[in-house]
Amino acid sequence: MKRRKKRLMIIGLFLIIILFAVILTAEVIDYFSRSKVDTSEGIAVIKAAENENIKDIEKKIDRLDAKDETSGSSQNFKSRFSNSVVMGDSITEALKEYDILNASSVVSKIGVQLDGLDEQIETVKEINPQIIFLSYGMNDLLATEGDSSVFIKRYKAVIAEIRAALPDTTLFVNSIFPASAAKQEEEPQLQKVQEFNEELKKMCDENQLAFIDNTSLVSEQYYEEDGIHFKADFYPLWLKRMAEVAAL
Prior knowledge:
about 250 residues, single chain, alpha/beta, elongated, 5 strands, 9 helices
């Protein structure tokens, strides 16, 4: 009798377990069925948000990818340019933004022109580098309305001031970077970059300065959307050119 009772209890417990499993399975199926609908709605919202900011996201990804690609060489450039300073405008500013050179090796300002370099010159006086790479012209080309004679006059004044303040510092002059084809079409004055560079090279020859022609480094793939500034993967090419000319 006891054995029969025990057997019935075991069977009853087994049936309860089966019933509980069936109920649990049904609840799980119902949960995931309902969740699937909610997930779809959530995905739709996320996609809408992504579409609104897709350009910003792509830009950030490009910058991260470019930084990864150049990270192996950035430390090398920081070391090679440790006793040098690159002076310039917003194009030069990106050397700091992309962390390719140390901040102490870059003296730059967005939108700066040759007749507004007093603050930059005071900064390089304090740094007292062995080498200075000058990189100006795009803003001046537009500000002078394409008058290369005014541009050269201002460049000569800057060089004279730096030489007077830092007589033992070697100067190198970078060519003006050309704008993209689309940007040149939009702003015809930018088509005068070649003319300005020819005058700049002539000035360098007359003043015993090394002129660094970077024109061949530039191609459409390196431009940012504005057609003037460059993506991160362009800068190692430029730094390599400067380093080669200066024997760094």
